[in-house]
């Protein structure tokens, strides 16, 4: 396969990435590398070959991230990168969408691009020399952004298990986590979960929901609005939602119209990083909102975490 041979020659491919003039070119290389990575796995190519292809994919994602970070809307509404013009009245989101990149993926690529070059190169060498699988997730761990509750755009932080256990006791089960990952679900153990690649915003939800949404906008508002809509329409039975206690925001006000009770933890929740370590106190406090008819059990289970209030609903 000619394309596989080209990507096996990773020095040549790295040069092609460095010479990319815009997002479109970098995205094309990334997509080809992704397809060939799958092919290489099916063909049972050696780990060395698979890692070379994975390296090209990750380097292309880093290049996309560099372009994405520098996309800016100029005064007058013209979006551009350097001398590359994308047209009048084109927002960054629209430009990315036109080349097949949603904001969630752009955020991941920008996180990779934010890693200092020496650190980035060192990690790739270390993984390959140790004969470990090289993945985007492993590189993302280097992007030591604070939790989204520190007001960053990084979403790779997870809920402490004692909160998950309390939510399960209230709802009886967690049938779906629509904004999760394989790492997070080790603790949550939802019957079904959607990852960033699945895009839970467009999927059908059912049963009892646990939601710790990505806090970067516009995703936090989209997920929080959606859980309210799906509960009101009876598409879901119950839900527990963990978010920042941003009571003044439109999405929080919207949730309070549908929720039955809210817990305001007495201390800032110490979220868990990808290695299972508590991250320390975030800059903002949190709230857990409950949607359902089991208010008394929610009060019982969540009172140890802080103050709990019931929301009166007019019959």
How does this model look, in words?
With 315 residues, the protein is an alpha+beta fold. The chain folds into 2 domains: 2-144, no CATH class; 150-310, Rossmann fold (3-Layer(aba) Sandwich). 46% of the residues lie in helices and 13% in strands. The protein has helices at 2-8, 10-18, 23-42, 47-70, 92-98, 103-113, 117-129, 136-140, 161-171, 182-188, 219-232, 250-258, 295-302, and strands at 72-73, 78-81, 84-88, 176-177, 192-193, 208-211, 238-244, 261-265, 286-291, 306-310. The protein has a 5-stranded mixed sheet with strand order 6-7-9-8-10, sandwiched between helices. A hairpin with a 2-residue loop joins strand 2 and strand 3. The chain is elongated and about 65 Å long. The model is unreliable at 73-88, 144-156 and 273-278 (pLDDT under 50).
Strand segment tally: 10
Order of helices and strands: HHHHEEEHHHHHEHEEHEHEEHE
Query: Low-confidence spans: pLDDT under 50, at least 5 residues?
Result: 73-88, 144-156, 273-278
Strand order of the largest sheet: 6-7-9-8-10
Strand proportion: 5-15%
Mean of pLDDT: 80
Name the helicity range: 40-55%
The CATH class of the largest domain: Alpha Beta
Indicate how many domains the architecture comprises: 2
Number of helices: 13
**Rg computed from alpha carbons, rounded to a whole number of angstroms:** 22 Å
Question: What would you call the structural class?
Answer: alpha+beta
> Can you name the CATH architecture of the largest domain?
3-Layer(aba) Sandwich
* Overall 3D form: elongated
Summarize the main sheet.
Answer: 5 strands, mixed
And the CATH topology of the largest domain?
A: Rossmann fold
C-alpha end-to-end distance:
67 Å
């Amino acid at each position: 396969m000619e394309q596989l041979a080209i990507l096996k020659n990773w020095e040549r491919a790295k040069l092609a990435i460095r010479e990319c003039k815009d997002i479109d070119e970098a995205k094309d290389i990334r997509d080809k590398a992704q397809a060939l990575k799958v092919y290489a796995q099916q063909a049972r190519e050696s780990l060395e070959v698979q890692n070379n292809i994975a390296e090209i994919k990750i380097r292309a994602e880093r290049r996309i991230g560099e372009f994405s970070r520098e996309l800016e809307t100029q005064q007058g509404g013209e979006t551009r990168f350097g001398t590359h013009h994308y047209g009048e009245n084109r927002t960054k989101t629209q430009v990315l969408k036109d080349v097949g990149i949603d904001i969630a993926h752009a955020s991941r690529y920008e996180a990779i691009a934010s890693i200092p070059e020496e650190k980035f190169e060192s990690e790739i060498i270390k993984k390959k020399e140790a004969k470990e699988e090289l993945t985007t997730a492993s590189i993302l761990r280097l992007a030591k952004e604070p939790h989204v509750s520190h007001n960053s755009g990084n979403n790779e932080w997870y809920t402490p298990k004692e909160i998950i256990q309390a939510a399960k006791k209230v709802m009886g089960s967690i049938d779906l986590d629509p904004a999760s990952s394989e790492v997070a679900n080790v603790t949550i153990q939802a019957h079904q979960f959607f990852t960033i690649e699945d895009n839970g915003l467009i999927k059908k939800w059912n049963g009892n929901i646990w939601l710790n949404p990505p806090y970067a906008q516009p995703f936090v508002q989209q997920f929080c609005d959606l859980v309210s809509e799906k509960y009101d329409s009876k598409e879901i039975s119950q839900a527990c939602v963990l978010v920042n206690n941003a009571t003044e925001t439109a999405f929080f006000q919207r949730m309070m119209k549908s929720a039955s009770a809210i817990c305001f933890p007495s201390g800032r929740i110490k979220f868990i990083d990808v290695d299972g370590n508590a991250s320390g106190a975030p800059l903002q406090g949190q709230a857990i909102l409950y949607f359902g008819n089991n208010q008394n059990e929610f009060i019982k289970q969540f009172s140890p975490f802080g103050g709990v209030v019931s929301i009166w609903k007019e019959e």
